[in-house]
Amino acid sequence: SGIWPVFRMMDESGNFRQPDKALHTNVSKLIPPKHHDLLQLQSALTIQYPHFKHHFLSSGLFQPSKNPYPDMLLNNEEAEAADDAKNTLLRAHRQMIRLRKMDTILHNAQRQGRISFYMTHHGEEAIHMGSASALSPQDVIFAQYREAGLLMWRGFTLEQFCNQCFSNDHDLGKGRQMPIHYGCRALNYQTVSSPLGTQITQAVGAAYKFKLDAMNNREKEAAISIVYFGEGAASTIDFHSACNFAATLKTPMIFFCRNNGYAISTPV
């Protein structure tokens, strides 16, 4: 059809690709950088890039929130007057910057010996916010080590991240887990486990439960599970077993593989 997959819409410089790869136009030329009108941006992008019209119209990032985001209300009157507090795309950008800054601080803390362990999310911030924005609150997340952005998107605070990494008595897990092994029942984010790949089969089990619930109660709001893992975990037996069961049972779930090249010997 000549339509690129959504994850190849932009190149590494933030320029939109055309299906023939011939035209590269920077999005900043379409709308002034300080203009935060979501619908105007969506309309401009749809006209400029008709090949991606479906993605622009269906993306949750281009839909303003019904209520102001609490973490966007820096100045209530100003923010609400400009609708910035309801701007989903602007919030995603700020969350990516916030995650990068949190990484810098906590990574430095680890190098100073203040905490025992930390792993950064450098270069992966966008996949967190993009995928998190497409999920519903009832969808359950099974993460590995580098998905803190999804928790941040759902409302996990910087204080809660620090409580977990410093293993203090305010940590939801009461300091019983290693740093970055986040978990939050209220936000449907299953606690991270150290062994690679174990979350993949667990996600299939959760998805199968959601399928049975939907069959037994048609009025219940449908939910899915989504599992994140790196390319190294894709070589584990957990991955292949999970794929077999998911295909056989037709479970409502998403396999999200981060091919970041960090695996020692098995990049995809």
Structure notes:
The protein is α/β, with parallel strands linked by helices and 268 residues long. It is 39% helix and 9% strand. It is built from nine helices and six strands; from the N terminus they run E-E-H-H-H-H-H-E-H-H-E-H-E-H-E. The strands form two sheets. Strands 4-3-5-6 form a four-stranded parallel sheet, with helices on one face. Strand 1 and strand 2 form a beta hairpin. Helix 4 crosses helix 6. It is globular, with a radius of gyration of 20 Å. The two termini are 25 Å apart. 26% of the residues are buried. Residues 1-8 and 22-33 have low confidence and may be disordered.
Question: How is the secondary structure organized here?
Answer:
Blueprint lengths: L14 E3 L6 E3 L11 H11 L4 H6 L17 H7 L5 H24 L13 H10 L5 E3 L5 H7 L3 H8 L23 E2 L7 H19 L8 E6 L6 H13 L3 E6 L10
Parallel strand pairs: 3-4, 3-5, 5-6
Antiparallel strand pairs: 1-2
Helix pairs in contact: 4-5, 4-6, 5-6, 8-9
Shape: globular
The count of strands amounts to 6
Helix content: 25-40%
Structural class: alpha/beta
Could you name the key traits of this structure?
268 residues; alpha/beta; four-stranded parallel β-sheet; two-stranded antiparallel ribbon
Short précis:
This protein is an alpha/beta fold. It has nine helices and six strands; from the N terminus they run ββαααααβααβαβαβ.
